[in-house]
Amino acid sequence: MSAPAQSLPPTMRAWARSRRGPPRSTMKLADLPTPSDPTGTTSPDVLIRVSHVALQFNSEFFLSVLPSIPFVGSNTYIPELEFSGEIVGAGNSAPLEVRDKGTRVVAFQTIPGMVLGYGVLAEYVRLPGAQVAPLPESVDYAQASGVIGAGCTALKLLRKSGLQSGQRVLVNGASGSVGSVLVQLAKLKGAYVVGVASGPNEAMVRGLGADEFVDYRAHPGSLPQFLKETYGGTPFDFFMDCVGTQDLFEGSPGYVKTGGAVLNIGAVEGIVTTVLNLLSNLFLPIWLGGVPRRYIFFSSPPLRDDAMYLAQLLGEGKLKVPVDSVFDMKDLLASYERVGTKRARGKVVIKVRSDQY
Predict the structure, then answer these.
(1) Which CATH number is 149-297's, of 3.40.50.300, 3.40.50.720, 3.30.200.20, 3.30.360.20?
(2) Which residues does the annotated region (Disordered) include (predicted)?
(3) Per residue, what are the HEC states of the chain?
(4) pLDDT for residue 357
């Protein structure tokens, strides 16, 4: 779909980090040069007017620890990875389906790109077309902004496991950004899904399609024992941990089949502890106390084909991305505080365009 030509402003608003440290003391809303328009060139890039940006749960950590990289990165460090918006310019080598001005899209920056400071929390973003997927007209921009990161990770979990119709899967963190999408995709595969989250999120998790719900807060210090007593007779084929809780892996022989597997993408116990647990879980022999269940840990960069598939599911009404809250561009610091509570029910989103809802 083509839209009338519009002139681009010379500057744009963007959140930029002045130095390494927590967002409240290092981030500011600045006027920065608008990226150049690739229209009329042989470039594969597209220029996108950003509508909404979905925040990552670990953004505040990276802002606090990642240094600016001189000479190779951006002069101004802009955070965040995934967003929605519309095409305002495209090079002649960009993919045909995202080349027309006015095309609604979802898109993502690569992790190396964000590490170098080329994040997406800005009014305009220029990216290779291979990182952009068209968005159906029926899909809300706010919901769509958070589908790529969580959705691509959930798809990778399903592929790694080889989950088949009729199998049983336990999802820990079922109300989180990845877990909420994972529950839905597992149900689309025909699996029987038990979701674990806090009690106030039960209606949400069941509404996503979970067959059963477990409130972890109702079993403080004894959740592995509860799972063993409740599901030991009908163990799971796979336990997919979106939180990263070590005691649940250690107790998994009580509720995961001998030939099953535990797949983990979480690091709630901290980076150092998670790395130590990872080494133990992968390499400690059973005769030295290792857990007799297959353990898989991975991170997964987004892929354009997956992004296109997820956008299609959104358009068909077969998938929804729970949105916890939407903050105005000026309220970024408050939005990071919401993410930091670890109690968000779905994605926390920044509305970049003041005229877009």
Answers:
(1) 3.40.50.720
(2) 1-41
(3) CCCCCCCCCCEEEEEEECCCCCHHHHEEEEEEECCCCCCCCCCCEEEEEEEEEECCCCHHHHHHHCCCCCCCCCCCEECCCEEEEEEEEECCCCCHHHCCCCCEEEEECCHHHHHCCECCCECEEEEEHHHEEECCCCCCHHHHCCHHHHHHHHHHHHHHHCCCCCCEEEEECCCCHHHHHHHHHHHHCCCEEEEEECHHHHHHHHHCCCCEEEEHHHCCCCHHHHHHHHHCCCCEEEEEECCCCHHHHHCHHHCEEEEEEEEECCCCCCHHHHHHHHHHHHHCCHHHCCCCCEEEECCCCCCHHHHHHHHHHHHCCCCCCCEEEEEEHHHHHHHHHHHHCCCCCCEEEEECCCCCC
(4) 43
Label residue 79 left, alpha or beta by phi (over 0 means left) and psi (-120 to 50 means alpha): beta
How high does pLDDT run on average in the chain?
89
From 146, 126, 134, select the one nearest 103 (Cα to Cα). 134
CATH class of this structure's domain 11-146+321-351: alpha beta
Strands (E), 165-273: 168-172, 192-197, 212-215, 236-241, 256-264
| Tens digits of residue pLDDT in 259-303 | 999 999 876 666 666 667 667 777 676 767 678 788 988 777 888
Domain ranges of the chain: 11-146+321-351, 149-297
Task: Please report the pLDDT score of residue 274 as a whole number.
Answer: 66
